[in-house]
Design brief:
Layout: E1 4-9, H1 13-24, E2 32-37, H2 44-54, E3 59-63, H3 71-74, E4 90-92
Parallel strand pairs: 1-2, 1-4, 2-3
Helix pairs in contact: 1-2
Length: about 90
């Protein structure tokens, strides 16, 4: 079974590392993490890149945006690059 996680972030620096650590520590390994960032101005993108480098066994797709579109627009359609349909969207921020 293929396990994809789709996330939308916006200035999620405060909780993002804890959330990603939890996702990466699940009993069932995650195959792919796709993150649509909604124009974060904090350290969100740096944290995502750190996790990407620390977990090369996971396929990462990080989609930064220059402007904030809002949560509903970010995950209203299947995020670009997601290999499978997702059931449980996560948001940090």
């Amino acid at each position: 079974m293929f396990c994809s996680v789709a996330m939308s972030t916006y200035n999620g620096e405060r909780f993002l590392a804890e959330q990603l650590s939890s996702i990466c520590a699940q009993t069932r390994p995650v195959d792919e993490i796709v993150v649509s960032d909604d124009g974060s101005s904090d350290g969100t993108l740096r944290i995502l890149d750190d996790f990407r480098l620390a977990h090369p066994q996971i396929h990462w797709k990080i989609l930064p945006s220059a402007e904030n579109h809002g949560f509903s627009r970010e995950l209203s359609a299947r995020p670009q690059g997601l290999r499978r349909r997702f059931d449980f969207p996560l948001r940090s921020g």
